[in-house]
Amino acid sequence: MQSSELRQKYLEFFKQKGHSIIPSASLIPENDSTTLFTGSGMQPMVPYLLGEKHPLGKRIADSQKSFRVLDIEEVGDKRHTTMFEMLGNWSLGDYFKKEQLNWIYEFLVEQVKIPAERLYATVFDGDKSIGIPKDETSIQILKEIFAKYGIDAKEGERIFCYDVKKNWWSRSGIPQNMPVGEPGGPDSEIFYDTGAELKKHENSLWKNEKCHVNCDCGRFVEIGNNVFMEYKKTLNGFEKLAQQNVDFGGGFERIVMASEGTDNIFLTDLFSNIIFKIEELSGKKYLENSKPFEVVADHIKAATFIMGDSRGISPSNLGQGYIVRRLIRRAIRFGRQLGITQNLWTKEIAKIVAEDYKNVYPEITENLEFIIKNLDAEEEKFAKSLDAGLKQFECLDCKDVITGKDAFLLYQTYGFPIEMTEELSREKGLKIDLEEFSKESQIHQELSRTASAGTFKGGLADSSEATTKLHTTAHLMLAGLRKFLGDSVSQKGSNITSERVRFDFAWKEKMTAEQIKQVEDFVNSAIGKDLPVICKEMNLDQAKEINATGVFEHKYGERVKVYFIGEGEQNISKEICGGPHVEHTGTMGKFKIIKEESSSAGVRRIKAILE
Q: Residue 33: which residues within 8 A CB-CB, separation 6 or more?
């Protein structure tokens, strides 16, 4: 089944089950401080999982473009990518476990035609320490589903039970790490058996272990996760949410892979045109050079999606821009390893991506000129870095062995893959301390993971009173910026905690002290007037007609909520948003901008507080 057919079949299937289909949200999160990028379909849905009414009802489905920073080092094993699509469907207090599990297996087996005997399930084993029992309900439902397809689904053979480390889902991970107010719940994951029985291989690391779906031997691949979002963490432990939710996320690329009966995502039509282009550029064959091919294909595709997003990011040394730069430069390194010598070649891959997705994500084609400009600039800059690295290699003070620290310096500072350093070393009759290099690399990876996981804390996700006030403040601040800097100002991102608001906006110049004071006075004047904050639902065209800001079609679909601050002649802000907000501005306190600085090219950042 072609990927375009499968994507559409999924959306049509759930539309027939009464779901409203919404477009993909931006890859750049809005009002979610937990991550640099949208890494799952549920991120834009958090307010509705917590009880906020969705404009389109209680049943929602979509295909969400997603990106995960922590998977960069995982690319190269045939099944990991940083950029992927997540097929999603949600029940917001409507249907629950019985309907969801029956429907998703019906879709996979009867619609996609994945053999039922290739599918396995996991469920939550319970945790006495948090007072949540084993999910016996899901086990019984799954047994009945498999029986329908002639399979006796026994525990430990077809259905596996795991603790909170494997079968509990929240954005913060295990229950102990969840902040107060965060939703979460047990899940039931779906695994596909690729048929690669690595346990039988004589040299397998797992040959003497009992095979199970989470053993990491490579035989099983998770293709979907049914999260039963029914709990919320409180000061007194876990309590049932007012509504029981379903949050399904299915790895689109992996489901396509399973539908084609292969164990390799890069052999599907989602990557075939890209792989062919890399073969043409390098003169090499993918199956003989799989890892560098996969890194180049995934990384340029991911960078193209991020830069081509409706809220696109340029490469830089900060935050999201740094990740884009890292992707491009890592792809260039592996392209050099493949022997690609054509000048400014990365844009050729980007053109393929734009063509492949023109009917699904047209914004990539619309922003292709911007993408190509940034790719060319990065290639030119990195070419100089590689030349400097070669000079550094010639200056290494060594006799017989290059230290692991020196090899890692070449990798980290100049972008040399270890394979390149090894090749240069062989030419000089030198060896590399690979053990020390591995240790240095592991230390760096752990630091990077810690940094990625801990970069942002708190945010609009906690929906506390303090955070809600600062969220409304962000609306007032945008209105003030547009009043004193001009209507060209647009929001590029925000990070709101209970202590402060961090707000990124499109503007090329440093704000003057007078402009900062004007915005402060504007916001404080609005607070002093105790203006009402009113939410109105309308369709997208109506929101455009009244010039509401934040018209993000890729997040909200056809029905939207517009928050008005002030009525009639006193209306000073009207913005599309999912909430929550204060009811009156007079409850907010005194607004103060504590810092204004550059965020990236053409983007400024304000940090502000309420005293």
A: 456, 457, 458, 459, 460, 461, 495, 496, 497
Helix (H) or strand (E) holding 568: none
3-state secondary structure of 325: helix
Q: Is 288 helix (H, G, I), strand (E, B) or coil?
A: helix
pLDDT of 46 over the 60 cut = yes
CB 291 within 8 A of CB 79: no
Q: Buried (b) or exposed (e) across 431-451, using 16+ Cβ within 10 A?
A: ebbeebbeebbeeeeeeeeee
- Give the pLDDT confidence of 490-526 residue by residue, as tens digits: 888 788 888 889 888 888 889 999 999 999 999 999 9
Asked if residue 431 lies in contact with residue 401, where contact means CB atoms within 8 angstroms, the answer is: yes
Nearest to 409 by CA among 429, 431, 432: 432
Distance CA 466, CA 93 (A): 27
pLDDT reported for residue 394 = 85
CATH architecture of 464-610: 2-Layer Sandwich (3.30)
Q: Please give the C-alpha separations between residue 442 and each of 70, 329, 352, 438, 448, in angstroms, as whole numbers.
A: 14, 20, 34, 6, 10
- Between the CA of residue 427 and those of 172, 399, 431, what are the distances in Å? 48, 14, 10
CB 526 within 8 A of CB 565: yes
Whole-angstrom Cα distance, residue 154 to residue 97? 19
Q: Which of 31, 57, 22 is nearest to 580 (CA)?
A: 31
Q: Domain locations in the chain? A: 3-265, 274-454, 464-610
Superfamily of domain 3-265: Bira Bifunctional Protein; Domain 2 (3.30.930.10)
Q: What is the dihedral of CA 113, 116, 117, 121, to 10 degrees?
A: 130
In this predicted structure, the answer to whether residue 453 has a pLDDT above a threshold of 50 is no
